[in-house]
């Protein structure tokens, strides 16, 4: 006689379901702290996991609050320092600085020319990492560089090509300054900028190198672009380019960038005749890209980077607290 399969009764179905529900299925939520909630309702499980996350949120928010407090205590004021503001008040350049953006621009008119000098606060963080990696690989490098700096004091840039004595031009087109021409930092006015033509003021505290892009545009004549480095009161030209189409000087699309790559824009600056290098430096100096600017830019970058860092701390803390 074949076996007959009878349908399950309601009580059998309920007991089977209860047995299946009691089976333990391993999950990612196996932390002892939430084991007791494993067999609770779905809402309770989610509530316990969420509560665990809130603990980290509170600790993270408190840490951000601590960092903000420390940074604000170290900061003198939210307004521009007097020496930075003084430069802007007495300069022909107009400042273009958008909060939250890394790039800063200085613009001015010079006759029929439109001049734009751009730099970025990213240089401050980049140089810190580069120096750390460099010194980690060769601990003696900093001592060697200090010895080299003490042995030879080299000046370069538009503003440093005038008003100095006992100078001899080096192979790279820079001026080597005799020791008797150097002025100790303690003898200079703190927070002011030296103009070699007038011999006034100047602070010689070491600064990081800030990379500059200098665009000089004439209507219908294209753009003369120079890449330079501003550090310790020196503007050192690295490259000089000419673009007949102004949009190529600041290529913002892939097509423009490709067109720019195929152009012959000029030889390396160091390959130019030394007299030509000197005249190009004086060309920038005459347009205000000089020692005063080279001293001001690193200080402004340092101030702006600190300001942006505080805003970043505040924004991330607000997000965590939301």
Structure description:
With about 325 residues, the protein is α+β, with helices and mostly antiparallel strands. The chain is built from 8 helices and 9 strands. The protein has helices at about 10-20, 40-75, 80-90, 120-135, 140-150, 255-260, 275-285, 290-320; strands spanning about 95, 105-110, 115-120, 155, 165-170, 175, 210-220, 220-230, 235-245. The chain has a 6-stranded antiparallel beta sheet with strand order 1-2-3-7-8-9. It is elongated. Mean pLDDT is about 75; it is low at about 20-40 and about 150-205.
Strand-helix topology:
Elements: H1 10-21, H2 42-74, H3 82-90, E1 94-97, E2 103-110, E3 113-120, H4 122-137, H5 141-151, E4 154-155, E5 167-169, E6 175-177, E7 210-218, E8 222-231, E9 234-243, H6 254-261, H7 274-286, H8 291-321
Antiparallel strand pairs: 1-2, 2-3, 3-7, 4-6, 5-6, 7-8, 8-9
Q: From the alpha-carbon coordinates, what is the Rg to the nearest angstrom?
A: 32 Å
Overall pLDDT metric: 73
How large is the count of helical segments? 8
Q: Give a quick account of the main beta sheet: strands, pairing sense, barrel closure.
A: 6 strands, antiparallel
3D shape: elongated
- Kindly state the number of beta strands: 9
Distance between the termini: 72 Å
Which structural class do you get from the secondary structure elements? alpha+beta
Helix fraction, binned, reads 40-55%
Spans of at least 5 consecutive residues whose pLDDT stays below 50 are 22-39, 149-203
């Amino acid at each position: 006689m074949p076996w007959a399969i009878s349908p399950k009764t309601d009580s059998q179905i309920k007991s089977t379901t209860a047995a299946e529900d009691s089976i333990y299925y391993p999950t990612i939520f196996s932390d002892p702290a939430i084991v007791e909630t494993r067999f609770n309702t779905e809402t309770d499980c989610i509530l316990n996991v969420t509560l665990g996350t809130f603990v980290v949120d509170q600790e993270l928010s408190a840490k951000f609050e601590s960092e903000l407090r420390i940074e604000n205590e170290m900061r003198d004021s939210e307004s521009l320092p007097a020496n930075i503001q003084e430069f802007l008040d007495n300069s022909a350049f107009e400042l273009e600085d958008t909060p939250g953006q890394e790039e800063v621009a200085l613009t001015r008119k010079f006759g029929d020319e439109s001049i734009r000098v751009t730099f970025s606060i990213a240089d401050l963080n980049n140089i810190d990492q580069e120096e750390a990696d460099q010194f980690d690989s060769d601990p003696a490098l900093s001592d060697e560089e200090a010895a080299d700096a003490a042995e030879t004091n080299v000046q370069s840039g538009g503003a440093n090509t005038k008003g100095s004595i006992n100078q001899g031009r080096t192979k790279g087109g820079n001026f080597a300054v005799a020791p008797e021409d150097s002025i100790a930092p303690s003898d200079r006015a703190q927070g002011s900028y030296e103009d070699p033509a007038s011999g006034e003021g100047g602070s010689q505290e070491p600064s990081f190198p800030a990379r500059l892009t200098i665009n000089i545009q004439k209507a219908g004549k294209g753009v003369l672009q120079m890449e330079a480095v501003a550090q310790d009161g020196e503007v050192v030209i690295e490259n000089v380019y000419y673009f007949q189409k102004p949009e190529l000087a600041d290529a913002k699309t892939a097509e423009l960038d490709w067109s720019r790559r195929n152009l012959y824009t000029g030889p390396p600056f160091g390959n130019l005749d030394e007299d030509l290098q000197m005249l190009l430096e004086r060309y920038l100096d005459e347009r205000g890209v000089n020692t005063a600017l080279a001293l001001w830019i690193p200080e402004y970058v340092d101030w702006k980077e600190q300001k942006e860092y505080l805003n970043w701390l505040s924004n991330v803390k607000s997000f965590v607290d939301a």
